[in-house]
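Researcher: Here's the sequence for the chain we discussed earlier.
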Amino acid sequence: MKNRLLLLLFGFTFSSIIAQDVPKNWFLMDRSEGYDGISADKAYADILKDAKGETVVVAIIDSGIDIQHEDLKDNIWINLDEIPDNGKDDDGNGYIDDVYGWNFIGGPDGKNVGPDTYEVTRIFGKYDYKYKNADPSKLSGDDKKEYALYLKAKEEVEKARDKASSQIAELDKISERINSSLDMLSEKLGDNSLTIANVEKVEDTSPEISVAKQVALEYLSKDGVNTMSDIKSAIQTDIDSDKKRYQDQLDYAYNTDFDTRALIVKDNYADATQSNYGNNDVEGPDPLHGTHVAGIVGAVADNGIGMNGVAKNVKLMSVRTVPDGDERDKDVANAIRYAVDNGASIINMSFGKAYSWNKGVVNDAVKYAAKHDVLMVHAAGNSAKNTDVEDNFPNDLIKEKGFFLCPKKEAKNWIEVGALNFEKGEKAVARFSNYGQDEVDLFSPGVKIYSTMPNDEYAFLQGTSMASPVVAGVAAVIRSYFPTLTAEQVKEAIMESVVPIDGMVDVPGKKDTKQDFKELSVTGGEVNLYNAILAAAKMKGKKKIDKKKIGA
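Model: Thanks. This is the structure I predict for it:
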């Protein structure tokens, strides 16, 4: 137990100690400035200096957006055909008072889904009644496939619940041991005051004191932490937060009996064609994730506050679809169609899951977007897995491979994005990022990305969720300055203009394993706005410019 405690503590403090300071705008910088950014600042200062672009609408299908944020509000999409708060569907699109977008995980009474289950839990629950006592020897055809899926989901859910329970118990033990170690440190300090300098002077090298010193030094560096009582309180707050995360998994994410959908949304969930449900609360109870994503795409540039988004001539449409749990395929499909019907030319999707309830309905929506020339940008996922061999949904596969004359079909209006680190060389790929030479198209900055947070705040976050909106922003710039390019042409310009990354890199999720970066994605490179603009400039547009007003 002591060794486990030491590993946990040293792992957590060590990550804080080695965390590097990076410029807040590093992902916009050029390589000549020392960081492998996307050369956005260079592009605006050089080739776009005197150019004027058209306004582009980017839909953010996510957890919601703080539309009143100081650095976002001027770039929020407004449905000009809708009269606010009059309780009517003025524009006849099927949604009442959808002034800033729509919320597909809300109820008619204004309530909203917060926590929800994971898709694997829903699939386990879906088939449990059918296969719980089934005799596998008597199954045939599709039932065998369903039964195999059921067993896989059942095992995953039960393991996850066991792990969550054990982690809660473990955290209680860790709390006790930390407090005991800190008491021992207090005795060593004696009459000396609790300061960083005095803690560093303690020479005892026992495991308990070493742990206590690491913890004390970590927390004393934080504002408002001055006494041993402050340290213990701060540690307990962190531990309680972790305990809540695991308890939420038991109560919600992996709980087959939890059905917030029926209680709040009250749609006919079994009817995948139904679209007239939800409400117009585009922020929801926790818009943190969506707000951060939105800022990366299009926070107001050069206004002296916050940060600059990748795209300038942009309006951000909030389509709330992602709860604290897995998004549902029905909602994703409806969100895509809503975005398309209301003028979005780019859709960012920073979400994903390992199972799909109804992939077909999402595929149809992706094809609908393609038909209307809408580009879709999707985060590859944070499971550190090879998606060439492990499922990740949604994806661009819209038709499975059939017999000899029936090859698989992939959406041509789809870009799948992996995440890059701010570090170079072997650590260039974010340690959490999914990858795949066939399934991931390119990589983009996704570690220590500074962007907007609810309530006029800002923070660094990481994930392929941050890498995807960087690419969506690049696409928005191209569609702004080259409006005659189709979605497929925009994708082509982005893909063919990546900056290659040479050499061997650490493979996410595989300890002590390295691979040529070129083998981790289709392009083997990083998105670059400057290069993409040059590539777009050489193309002959295939699209007629639509003059129809689509929003402000």
